[in-house]
Design a protein that fits this description.
With 422 residues, this protein is an alpha/beta fold. It has three domains: 259 residues, no CATH class; 66 residues, Alpha-Beta Plaits (2-Layer Sandwich), CATH 3.30.70.20; 83 residues, Alpha-Beta Plaits (2-Layer Sandwich), CATH 3.30.70.3270. It is built from 18 helices and 15 strands. The strands form six sheets. It has a four-stranded parallel sheet with strand order 6-5-7-8. Strands 11-12-15 form a three-stranded antiparallel sheet. A two-stranded antiparallel sheet has the order 1-4. The longest helix is centred in the middle third of the chain and has 27 residues.
């Protein structure tokens, strides 16, 4: 059933409800253990709407401006949006990519609110977010991956070529459009989205994909309906005016039809990411898992598909490795805010294994051989840099870094840290 409130809001503008931020206190590592100092959501909130005390996260609905920065920085995804879930954000981004031939436009509400009546942008081409602080690595990498699947728009990948980027394929871009973040009432100053964009660009560069995330301070020309702009610049007759109303009605009707299709079957969007079996990662998976799938799809497309890669229902990352991509990226190291590498100082470690006990993603495990403990196993693809292991280590023997091996992430290959290495 179509939500009539949503239809009205498409005409008068988006509405952000006070209960937008959903809190899962059981997922918050700062709540689960008082010794863990993570307060990233509190520190990033520009309106001081978030407090963490008495083993509970509180969001002051009167102060919250719904920028989404807290959602993006939370390593454990304890915070989410009830009004605009991540899967809906991705869906809007993919539709923009399709409408712009692989160059999606993501714009903040502040920029769009300042457009005058003559600047009628195409709602299919422009994905609107209240604030770009909501943009994270999983969204941007998934947009790149979605353009490389099922005949969709290719976001800068080289196709089935093992000889580098095809000269006939121009580099594509994911365009982030913001106004003056320093003057914005949200007060976030672009602290998160700019870091996310830099990290994604670094990752894509390391893989050899020419797609880039770029920042614009105004909507690009292709965001506008050129024909409507031309008509508006001419003297508008009574007939033209009513035809304009008719066009707007058709546009709304088309959006309603899209709403019905999208709400009834989201599987096509999932299929564009190469995920055709199991639970939808768009609804249940961690940010690391979504990024892992997206990276696998990008690497797979970058280095081509030989016959032995198998059928499309295979795991994307496994297919990328089967395609011979592993040898191409065996020495590729990426800097990430999503994946982590644990460094243990053997001279300080007392083998208490509190780090293992309090690692909620099981990125750290005991390494045993016939019942005898030999050291640690570390899974970089599971580590989300939450810092719980660092906080729980009494002798300060642990250091975390976001510098990780890409091939290890795609292989889901653990790293052994043995006592004899110390």
């Amino acid at each position: 059933m179509v939500d009539k409130i949503k239809i009205v809001e498409r005409v008068i503008g988006p509405k952000y409800y006070a209960a937008d931020i959903c809190v899962e206190s059981t997922d918050c590592i700062g709540i689960r253990n008082r010794r863990i100092t993570c307060r990233q959501c509190v520190e990033i909130c520009p309106t001081e709407a978030i407090t963490v005390e008495n083993r509970k996260i509180e969001v002051d609905e009167d102060k919250c401006n719904h920028c989404g920065a807290c959602i993006t920085v939370c390593p454990t995804q304890a915070l989410s949006s009830s009004w605009l879930p991540w899967k809906d954000v991705l869906q809007k981004g993919i539709l923009s990519a399709q409408a712009t031939r692989g160059n999606p436009i993501i714009a903040c509400s502040e920029v769009l609110s300042k457009l005058d009546e003559s600047e009628d942008y195409d709602r299919n081409k422009v994905m609107e977010l209240q604030c770009l602080e909501r943009v994270d690595e999983s969204l941007l990498l998934s947009l790149v991956a979605s353009g490389a699947s099922n005949g969709g728009p290719r976001l800068g990948c080289a196709g089935n070529s093992n000889d580098g980027i095809s000269a006939s394929k121009a580099a594509r871009a994911i365009r982030l459009v913001t106004g003056d973040c320093l003057e914005c009432e949200h007060g976030c100053m672009g602290a998160v989205w700019s870091l996310v964009a830099d990290q994604v660009n670094s990752i894509l560069g390391a893989i050899g994909v020419p797609t880039r995330v770029v920042h614009l301070d105004q909507l690009p020309g292709d965001a506008f309906d050129i024909e409507k702009v031309r008509l508006q610049n001419q003297s508008v007759s009574r007939r033209d005016m009513f035809e304009g109303f008719g066009d707007r009605a058709k546009h709304i009707a088309g959006e309603v039809a899209d709403e019905v299709i999208q709400e009834s079957d989201f599987s096509n969007i999932i299929a564009t990411l190469g995920i055709t079996s199991g639970e939808s990662p768009l609804a249940t998976a961690s940010r690391q898992k979504v990024c892992e799938w997206a990276l696998g799809a990008i690497v797979f497309e970058r280095y081509g598909r030989p016959e032995e890669a198998g059928t499309a229902d295979k795991d994307t990352a496994a297919a990328a490795i089967a395609a011979g991509a592993l040898s191409r990226i065996s020495d590729v190291s990426i800097s990430s805010r999503v994946f982590g590498h644990v460094l243990i100082d053997g001279g300080k470690c007392v083998n208490c294994f509190l780090c293992v006990a309090y690692c909620h993603t099981h990125a750290l495990e005991k390494l045993s051989d016939h019942g005898k403990v030999k050291g640690f196993l570390m899974h970089p693809n599971l580590c989300n840099l939450c810092g719980a292991c660092v906080n729980m280590c009494k002798p300060d023997a642990i250091e975390l870094t976001g510098q990780v091996d890409l091939a290890g992430i795609l292989q889901e290959k653990p790293i052994a840290i043995t006592y004899d290495q110390w």
